[in-house]
Amino acid sequence: MKLARKALVHFLDSSFANTLASATWFKVGIDMEELSVSLNPDTESIKNIWGESRVTDNGYEPSIDADPYYANPDETIYPKIRDIAMDRLTGDECKTLILEVIVEDTEATNHLAYVEEVIVKPQSYGGGTAGVNIPYNLSFNGGRKKGYVTATSLTSGNPTFTEGAIPSGS
Question: What's the whole-model pTM score?
Answer without folding.
Answer: 0.93
